[in-house]
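Entry 14. Two folds queued back to back today. First construct below, sequence then structure tokens.
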Amino acid sequence: MNIHEYQGKQLLKKYGVAVPLGNVAFTPEQAIEAAKSIHAKKWVVKAQIHAGGRGKAGGVKIAGSLDQITPIAEELLGKILVTPQTGPAGKKVKRLLIEEGSDIEKEFYLGMVLDRNASRIAVIASSEGGMEIEEVASKTPEKIVRESVDPLIGLAPFQARRIAFGIGIPDRQVNKAVKFMLELYRAFVDQDCSIAEINPLVLTKSGEILALDTKLNFDDNGLYRHKELLDLRDLGEEDEKEIQASEYGLNYIALDGNIGCMVNGAGLAMATMDIIKAFNGDPANFLDVGGGASKEKVEAAFRLILSDPHVRGILVNIFGGIMKCDVIAEGIVAATENVGLKVPLVVRLEGTNVKLGKEILHHSGLNITSANTMADAAEKIVQLVDQAAGGVVK
């Protein structure tokens, strides 16, 4: 789950992480009041959307006087920001962060993320703040410092000092930087974060270490421990179909293709999309129904896939372990009848009760094409979609 920058800063502030003074505003009137409550020589007005690259897209403005706040707020509120992370459709700005301006001496990058290969939290830092860390890794990897954290010990002060010296924090500010990192690590662990990114982390001319921009993502699997975080969720920033999917416990991401996919397991779902592409097809979505889908969940998945007007066919690829193939087959038959399916449907089942599952599909009397392997399934759905479109089979 993602939250806005201002929400992330409010959360980190509770842990003692240093952030600039700021307030959220939903209207130009609220923006000027927020600026007046912050005694500063200049203010930063920042569009709040769930996407990076806001500055380059014109979503961050500097106001040198209170008179400039209102026109800037009027310009940004309601504006569609298009960044590399929003896609061409962009995102509408509905709220702003009004923040005190900072006199920046130097910018750095600091991030924490789960290293799944090592089953540890990795702390990544760089002297190149304000840039995408992927770009730094590609062009100047020697400027990246990395520490792997032992989960039994946590981030050790000596590791934080090594990071601080490694990215060029001045000697006088090393202790402040160490304190900042230890507090950020505590917040990361306490709140079940999946990502904590401070970009840029800044050293001000007065010698302060501040989180100038903050990105916090949370592990959905840990949200049951943090009910208060659910109140921070902004549904207006999420895809409507993804919201519907979350209500049924489905993992759904919309794509640009025309072949809907329903799969159990994230790895199998990605492999299914890959093999569709290998046969010159285009997947319309990533959809993982999980390991214990019911008939109702399968029907919800079908309705979700078909809510995309670009879908011209559906591929169901299920490996039955915890999920039994006969239960899935019954769900597919019920869903096909209830939603009035009119596009080609290819089903590949394998695993527990697969023979019974295939018999259920065969005796249903519905227009369902069976497949034996992933390649067979992908080839068939691509052919059926092409034929239905009147095109040439690729």
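Second construct, same run, same settings:
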Amino acid sequence: MNHKKMKTRAKINLTLDVLGKRKDNYHEVEMIMQSIDLFDEMEFISKKKGITIYCQHCEVPIDESNIVYRAAKLLKDEYKIDKGIDIFIHKNIPVAAGLAGGSSNGAGTLQALNELWQLDLPLTKLMELGKRVGADIPFCLLGGTALAQGIGEKLQSLPPLPSNWLVLVKPPISISTAWVYKNLKINRHTQHPDTARAIQGIKEQNIDKAIPYFYNILEDVTIPAYPEIKAIKKRLEELGAKGVLMSGSGPTVFGFCRDEKEAQSICRTLKKEYNEVFIAKTYDEEVEAEDE
């Protein structure tokens, strides 16, 4: 085999809690992550030597700083691969959006090259390697619904959410994750998600029971600095979306809809106000495979 195509999916955070700062300056987090069916398309073509990246999106670097390049280089160095690869990325997931688009591309690269280069590495090994390239890569490899702890690398799969329709809005701002964590102040007044109760709702396959406990603590930093995020949250709620939250360190905001019809209606309205509005469903590979 010398050719492989992949779909690499975005993620949202149903909860994001920060429990404190560790001695190594990383933050101890606890969050429920969820794959969605908004995806980038990637193509991998073998060649004699070198790693070359192609992408139609002007904001995506195509040099060694790209997470995809770093993932490919790590596998190449680690397993003494003497072949090269051309990697084509077609972006559909918005860039720098808090949706792990880059990390999902990195995860897809590890999966595709594991096959193309016939390494036969198990998922656990790919996740271990992925952690060295980016904190969200292990989850993007695992997919579905999962609880992430530690610095995001300790993952525990949860029962998949019933398939739910979402509307996502990405405002035209960029937010640095490092800046958000640096400015996060946790004290006794800080609101936290109730992760345990949210998980209970998910286990009971009852999204309405889980939603009241969803919360993203990083909104405490981003909303005062970027009021537009609060305005989008309010707009989604006015239009009928539930469980409206910012994903990751932002700036994308998402909300749950009753059905596809409501999602389409909210999307049409918001497209008059924002350039980047998307409809997606929560995604679980196993459930999706059964449906096909």
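Quick look at the second one. The longest helix spans residues 101-116. The chain has two domains: 3-157, 165-291.
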